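Reply to dn_fold:

You asked what the input looked like. This is it:
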Amino acid sequence: MTFKRCFPPVVDDKTRVLILGSLPGEASLAQQQYYAHKQNKFWLLVGHVIERDLAGADYATRLHTLLENRIGLWDVVAEARRTGSLDSRIRDHSSNDLIALIDTLPSLCAIAFNGGAAAKIGVKTLGERGDKYRLLRLPSSSPAHASVPYAEKLAVWRQLRQLI
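and this is what came back:
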């Protein structure tokens, strides 16, 4: 198994919604970009939520637009051993210090987890501190979860709109 590390958080003091994934996949690590796999629907989903074309934008514009719309981004896993990109293959992980991060976000009102693994690890890591925020478990944007129709995913992801 290969040792993997997450990217730095993308947040600022205006962040109202923090979206937490699990750990970047192979394509993301290779390109050093969040959600770089071409079949991952993250940028399409968030783009529909904020009514902006993120899927067609360059990476710097994507990150700038997230912050402009008070959306932050990070992962629950700081580092782990994993072969491939599947969350089910994550082993020996250490969690990011989510509490230290949220303490720097005065406008934060909600934390959304992109998929089940992120939710499981994130809720455990936050503990009682999570009670202060609205917590949402979003259907995974990963191509590994393509069995859930896009329209069904988008219906849940659209809940973010009222929080930003």
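The longest strand covers residues 77-82.
Hope that clears it up.
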